[in-house]
Amino acid sequence: MTDLHYTPLPSDIVAALQAGVPDAYGIPAERAISDGDGNPCRHCLHDIPAGAGMLILAHRPFAGLHPYAETGPIFLCADACTAWHGQTPPPILKPGETYLIKGYTADERIRYGTGQIVPTQDLSKAAAALLARDEIAFVDLRSARNNCFQLRIRRA
């Protein structure tokens, strides 16, 4: 099986957003208080605790603009947090949930036929199978319910 790295949003991008840099739509992030339920930070890859400040913003996890560069809502901790680093599924991926995974080529194009809804317990196996294919550069993981970007999975 391919060794995996569950990749959060880059720290420099997160720090800029936390400092007020506009989001993918060119507007400032909304500031809110987490209710502690369903507010996963895409940097530390933990749920934002109840009562903590959070940012809600539009994010596009792609370098360029093209038809496959999906943009959608995400949450971030309002204050600095430590980026997740790990080869196991992070805390935001809840047991019993399902997620949408899609394989992408190095030029950020979806490789047709790779999209699938996968239960949490099968994510590592499914992502490793996609990343074992030479043409797949990375796998994006999204919410199966709302299609929100969660994280990127790469070869370790």
Mean pLDDT: 95
CATH class of the largest domain reads Alpha Beta
Rg value: 15 Å
Largest sheet: 5 strands, antiparallel
Helix-strand pattern:
EHEEEEEHEE
What proportion of the residues form beta strands (DSSP E)? 25-35%
Strand line-up across the major sheet = 1-8-7-5-6
Secondary-structure content class: mainly beta
Number of domains: 2
Under CATH, the topology of the largest domain is which?
first zn-finger domain of poly(adp-ribose) polymerase-1
The low-pLDDT segments are none
Basic shape: globular
Query: Got a strand count?
Result: 8
Count of DSSP-assigned helices: 2
CATH architecture of the largest domain: 2-Layer Sandwich
Roughly what percent helix? 10-25%
Distance between the first and last residues' Cα: 11 Å
Structure description:
A hairpin with a 5-residue loop joins strand 7 and strand 8. The protein has a 5-stranded antiparallel sheet, covered by helices on one side. Strands 2-3-4 form a 3-stranded antiparallel sheet, with no helix packed on it. It is mainly β. The chain is globular and about 40 Å long. The chain has 2 domains: 8-77, 2-Layer Sandwich (first zn-finger domain of poly(adp-ribose) polymerase-1), CATH 3.30.1740; 87-155, no CATH class. The model has no long low-confidence stretch (mean pLDDT 95). It contains 2 helices and 8 strands, in the order E-H-E-E-E-E-E-H-E-E. It has helices at 11-18, 123-131; strands at 4-7, 30-33, 53-59, 72-77, 98-104, 116-119, 138-143, 149-155. The longest helix is centred in the C-terminal third of the chain and has 9 residues, at 123-131. InterPro entries: DUF1203. It comes from Sulfitobacter albidus.
